[in-house]
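Hi W., the flavin-adenine dinucleotide complex you wanted:
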Amino acid sequence: MSDSYDVVLIGAGHNTLACALHLAAKGWKTGLFEAAPTPGGAVKTGEYTLPGFRHDWAAMNLNLFAGSAFYKDYSAELAQHGCAFTPVSKPFASAFPDGSWLGVTTDRAETLARIRAEDPADAETWSRLNDSFPQTAEAIGGLLSIPMKFNAIACFMFKMLRRNKIGGSLDIAQFMAQTPRRFLTRSFRSEKMQALLGAWGLHLDYAPDVAGGGIFPYLEGMVAQNLGMTLGQGGADTIIRAMVKAIEARGGRVECNASVAKILHENGKASGIELADGRRIAAKKAVIAGVAPQALLRMTGPTESRFDQAMRDYAYAPGTMMIHLAMDSLPDWAAGAALQEFAYIHLAPSLDQQARVYQQAQAGLLPDEPILVVGQPTTVDPSRAPQGKHVLWVQVRMVPGQIKGDAAGQITAKTWDEATAPMAERALDILERYAPGTRAKILEKHVVSPLDLEAENPNLVGGDQVCGSHHISQNFMFRPARGHSDGSTALKNLHLTGAAVWPGAGTGAGPGYLLARRLAK
Ligand SMILES: Cc1cc2nc3c(=O)[nH]c(=O)nc-3n(C[C@H](O)[C@H](O)[C@H](O)COP(=O)(O)OP(=O)(O)OC[C@H]3O[C@@H](n4cnc5c(N)ncnc54)[C@H](O)[C@@H]3O)c2cc1C
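Structure:
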């Protein structure tokens, strides 16, 4: 063996980094090996267009990280290593084809005035939902952050029943089971209000008619109203750079350009890893793999048949395409200059359009009118671009990883090598419709297809930005498989972490931190 550690971690996503930092802090000798030239996985920032224009390659909204248990415990240490955030008071809005817009800002009176202008009854509902948010957040937030283990669930249920009695607890369970469409159409009369919030479900794979998805539009709306949004100062990679420095300051090692080819094991117990360059690294206490389930199986070879089959069967959501734009100035939104002040503009005009796009992508079709999430980070953080200039972060949701056809019947390409350019043009046409003249302001663009996403980070299978569908059958105690939601595998001392493990995707570091605390106990 070339080297030896207490724990060896595979991949430098924010989950493994959080896990490594906690274990290093508990005195474990820690070595982390990342295939890419830079750490961070889906959280990285770079000058992908022109010098001085810093683009978040994938994740931009760091609300989940800033609100996480990991950040609560390590914020002081990360700040010492340069982690800094930019708070956003105007988090999101939607523009509509009729030239109107709706948005949520941390000024409740301002938000209510806009909603009231659409429908007074919806403003009352918004107020009511906000008033009850602290109690509901405690219940839902509590469930989303505990291990999916019998004791933890029983303890959670006991607290729920004591506080809400049987009826109240069942109401919360029903609330969590509903589709976005049911929650939104029962709560709001304005179709624009429904679309404004429904767009958030599509950030995961909760299209309007997917059971269990209703809480995401709700949570995102309430969090935005009460807390706004958090961006990384200078880029989302602020959290990654700080975590790497903190690990190194505690004696740990983070090595990039180090692809892991195999997980070594004998007699049912993991003992280390083999890198693609042939080096073998020993792990005395644990090997932690921050990879996709099928990749885990490729690295171990066959282990235990039920576990191996579950890893093989693990399912992915449709893909994403990213368009990074260096801009001369921000888009001139037809709906009004006020939209330039929001961090996210959703171009997702109705629940029916959102449902159609998801269904098309699921069926392998390039959507005729994909949903756009237009991020305007430089509106709050000018340090990301040269003076007076801007970057746009455009997410195209959702697109198929493998193309069977085009829902609009115009693009004949069946591979992403050929389809990327026309699909990017379709997205830019949509942007141009809502903000005429935007094309003329583009100084440079960088398009990342679903397959580019996967090529740079193999965890994003088919461009699935959440590393596996979050539908109920693959969430909670079933993520990634029954009996393994705590990251345990069929091999002793081998653990899986990252977005494929409960509590799943996003920048909340939940899977990594839950695992680290379990191991360090
Ligand atoms: C386009 C996009 C936009 C997103 N936007 C947001 C957002 O705004 N807010 C939010 O909260 N979430 C967002 N997400 C989701 C979120 O970024 C991810 O769920 C999260 O970052 C995943 O973290 P992770 O720790 O699981 O690992 P990942 O970030 O997936 O990193 C895994 C790492 O492991 C490495 N690796 C894999 N195999 C090997 C190997 N064999 N050897 C060595 N290294 C290996 C990879 O190279 C990669 O660096 C977005 C995701 C994408 C793709």
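The pocket of flavin-adenine dinucleotide is lined by residues 10-16, 33-36, 41-43, 58-61, 64, 259-260, 290-291, 295, 320, 322, 453, 457-460, 465-467, 498-499, 505-507 (CB under 6 Å).

W.
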